[in-house]
Specification:
The protein is of the alpha/beta class. It has 8 helices and 13 strands. It binds flavin-adenine dinucleotide. The site of flavin-adenine dinucleotide (FAD) has 32 residues, from helix 1, strand 6, helix 3, strand 8 and helix 4.
């Protein structure tokens, strides 16, 4: 079994600030991390390798410094890392990003064996569009399972997979064919501590570095700024909220009185909750 995990190096959003005058993101001095959602994807792939064997290739498109994130992924236990890096990718929006990544995934398939599953995170914490996973699937012409919480089983011989997909009001159990692409939800597992052997291997590992040409990009006009129809009109920090959370915990007041107070202050809450509960029930009855 060969699974590919797409990871993106992102600025640690907990430390990112928007310039109050220019409204541009201030990246200077902000440490980079692996996009947290991608760690859930990586752990899902590692768990499958524990059960079914095989190999995991991690792939990122980014500047040369993204090598650091790939090495980190190797310390968690990934077998191989591919860095797709080329000046012509600069300025890529999601359309151009999916073109480059899908091209590299095809090349990985030729070099190291076709992928059974391709994993991405649900979304990134910087771009935040959640478009890249579905875009790659479309370009590769494979099926996609989005918002996956758990891969229940994989039948490698019969090329099928069963996964749990979290949806509003319930969980869908989906059965489909592989190869397919999975976008992994947050809080679905916990990335393992890498073994010492993996840390040592990661430090010395050769990262496979591909330019656009190495990866087999045929149409340069689909890369980078040239291939990116998206135009960012404005970036701005949302105004701080005026409302403050009210402290409702109180040793003196009994819980029922507090609950009554909450409903009294929010007259629509009871109907909203009833609607939510009704939707949840109808969603669950629609399980497949
Ligand atoms: P999402 O769709 O939210 O990501 C979903 C998942 O896809 C991730 O969890 C991850 O698994 C995978 N994924 C996403 N991106 C990558 C990647 N690069 N490699 C591997 N896996 C990935 N960003 C830059 O860094 N440099 C630029 O120069 C740049 N220029 C831009 C110019 C324009 C006009 C626009 C609109 C955007 C630009 N961006 C740039 C941002 C860039 O478009 C997005 O970061 C990128 O396309 C991914 O989109 P996203 O972050 O919303 O990913």
């Amino acid at each position: 079994m060969h699974n590919i995990v797409c990871i993106k190096q992102v600025p640690d959003s907990a430390q990112i600030r928007v310039h109050p005058v220019t409204n541009t993101i201030m990246r200077q001095g902000v440490p980079t991390i692996i996009n947290p959602y991608d760690l859930f994807a990586l752990e899902a792939a590692l768990g499958l390798r524990d059960r079914f064997g095989g190999e995991i290739t991690v792939l990122t498109m980014g500047p040369p410094s993204a090598e650091e994130s790939l090495r980190k992924a190797l310390t968690y236990g990934a077998d191989r890392a591919v860095l797709l890096t080329d000046r012509c990718f600069a300025g890529s929006d999601t359309l151009a990003t999916t073109y480059a990544l899908a091209t590299a995934i095809r090349k990985i398939g030729k070099e190291y064996g076709p992928a059974n599953l391709i994993f991405t995170g649900k979304q990134t914490i910087d771009g935040d569009t959640a478009q890249v996973g579905p875009g790659i699937a479309k370009r590769l012409g494979v099926g996609q399972l989005t918002y996956v919480a758990k891969v229940r089983s994989v039948d490698v011989a019969n090329e099928t997979i069963e996964a749990e997909r979290r949806s509003e009001g319930g969980v869908q159990v989906l059965h489909t064919r592989s190869p397919c692409l999975i976008t992994m939800l947050e809080a679905t597992n916990q990335i393992r501590r890498g073994a010492m052997a993996d840390a040592l291997r990661a430090a010395r590992a050769k990262i496979v570095k591909w330019s656009a040409q190495d990866a087999g990009v045929e149409d340069m006009s689909k890369c980078g700024l040239k291939g990116s129809p998206t135009v960012v009109k404005r970036v701005f920090a949302p105004p701080a909220r005026a409302e403050r959370a009210a402290l409702v915990e109180s040793a003196e007041q009994p819980a029922q009185a507090l609950i009554d107070a909450i409903f009294l202050n929010q007259p629509k809450l009871e109907t909203d909750l009833a609607t939510l509960a009704r939707d949840a029930r109808s969603g669950l009855s629609g399980q497949c």
